[in-house]
Amino acid sequence: MIRRFRRIGALGACTVAAVALGTAAPAGAHDQGDGFEFTLYAKEVPVPGASESAPAPEVGDIFAFADDLYKTKGGEKVGRDGTVCAVVRTSGDQSDANCIGTFVLNGGPGGQLTAQALTTFDITNEQPAAFDAAITGGTGDFANAHGYIRVTPDGDYERMEFHITTR
């Protein structure tokens, strides 16, 4: 059964994202010879018809969400993301969700990245904890990519620090 429920702040911690960058690398991006490091800021795109209140998630619930991505908070929009998560465990006010996303980057650097995370969240906490998502592969400039994305709540945004190795 697929159930729609509002992505409260704690569910936002599951962001793993699909990114599309403009023609320039993100602010602060630098090539490390065999990899890249850069930071983006994600802000959720509202889902039409999404409920402001919903029952607690149950095992088997699936949710998807999208963000717009910026070089700086409120700055230049450099892309978008999309993520699908499945609730795999619940216990009291805590749930685990397995989330998977694909990052599409255009310009310099260019190609695709995939990432995945099993994230525990407290459904009563509007301010989720930071977490790491594993980079599981890539194409183009990101062929053979691995590394991680550190996702940290930052007000109305999520700060996403990309640490990518390509060798």
Describe this structure in words.
- This protein is an all-beta fold.
- The chain is 2% helix and 51% strand.
- Strands 2-3-4-5-6-7-8-9 form an eight-stranded antiparallel beta barrel.
- Strand 6 (111-122) and strand 7 form a beta hairpin.
- The longest helix has 4 residues, at 9-12.
- The protein is globular.
- The protein starts with 8 loop residues before the first helix and ends with a strand.
- The relative contact order is 0.26.
- Mean pLDDT is 77; it is low at 1-29.
Helix content: under 10%
Main-sheet strand order equals 2-3-4-5-6-7-8-9
Assess the beta-strand content as a share of residues: over 45%
What integer is the average pLDDT?
77
Count the E strands: 9
Gyration radius (Cα, Å) is: 16 Å
Shape, please? Answer: globular
Question: Unreliable runs, pLDDT <50, ≥5 residues?
Answer: 1-29
- Encode the helix/strand succession as letters: HEEEEEEEEE
Major β-sheet, in short?
8 strands, antiparallel, barrel
Number of separate helices: 1
Question: What distance lies between the first and last C-alpha atoms, to the nearest angstrom?
Answer: 41 Å
SS-derived structural category: mainly beta
**Quaternary structure annotation:** single chain
